[in-house]
Write a structure and sequence with these properties.
Aldolase_TIM, carbohydrate metabolism, disordered N terminus, 3-stranded parallel sheet, Bifunctional 4-hydroxy-2-oxoglutarate aldolase/2-dehydro-3-deoxy-phosphogluconate aldolase, 4-stranded parallel sheet, 11 helices, alpha/beta, globular, single chain, Aldlse_KDPG_KHG
């Protein structure tokens, strides 16, 4: 099922003057402003929209809809239509050229992958959509950067810790990095202080909300995450 809203194709993007550089910069600024990217992952996307409402009400203004959920693309379109303008919505677990195309057609504003896949990067960039591949080793980070990654996802972040991000920035200070994977709410400030542009939060933030669980508990966790970002950023000024 295609989304009701018609999103710009690559040709129309070029004609309208929207460039990859300008869009990538704008999306990155939104991610930085949110400080948290909520990763919505479940077996089905049935509860994604009510969870998204809770997250955005709490001040989380960046959402990643993962393709591992049944109905993810329709949920992506619906969330874009409801929250477009003040929330940036991307697609996660994008592993192939075909998946990247589908995500772009359904309105994804950025693409996230757990690996460095040149085809996904090229496909996103052809439509002026920023791409955030996942990397772990210095070689993978360098490869992602060389292929034009607009931001690199450190994954799995919990296997390495914030000090690893600092170590990466030693020889590669120009890299914009988003740690994702097992990050706790209590460690958000530490990751941001280590140099993360934003942090991706899955299970520790979402809890059971994506399986029809407690939305009030989700609101509390989201508010706690937003407060951690606000306090860390205030301390940096």
């Amino acid at each position: 099922m295609m989304p009701a809203r018609v999103h710009l194709t690559a040709d129309r993007l070029h004609r309208s003057g929207v460039t990859l550089a300008s869009r990538a910069a704008a999306v990155k600024e939104q991610l930085r402003g949110s400080g948290v990217v909520a990763v919505l992952r479940a077996s089905t996307a049935e509860h994604f929209i009510p969870a998204a409402r809770v997250l955005t009400d709490a001040g989380v203004h960046a959402l990643e809809i993962t393709l591992t959920a049944d109905g993810a693309l329709d949920a992506l379109s619906a969330i874009r239509q409801e929250f477009g303008g003040h929330v940036v919505v991307g697609a996660g677990t994008v592993l192939t050229h075909a998946q990247a195309i589908d995500c772009i057609r359904h309105g994804a504003e950025f693409l996230v992958s757990p690996v460095v896949n040149e085809g996904v990067i090229r496909t996103g960039h052809a439509s002026s959509i920023p791409v955030y591949p996942g990397a772990l080793t210095p070689t993978e980070f360098e490869t992602a950067d060389r292929l034009g990654a607009d931001l690199v996802k450190l994954f799995p972040a919990n296997a390495m810790g914030p000090s690893y991000l600092k170590d990466l920035h030693g020889p590669m200070p120009h890299l914009d990095i988003m740690p994702t994977g097992g990050i706790s709410l209590d460690s958000i400030a530490t990751w941001l202080a280590a140099g993360a542009v934003t942090v991706g939060l899955g299970g520790p933030l979402m809890g059971d909300a994506l399986n029809g669980g407690d939305l009030d508990a989700l609101a509390y966790r989201a508010q706690k995450a937003v407060a951690a970002v606000r306090e860390t950023r205030a301390g940096d000024q």
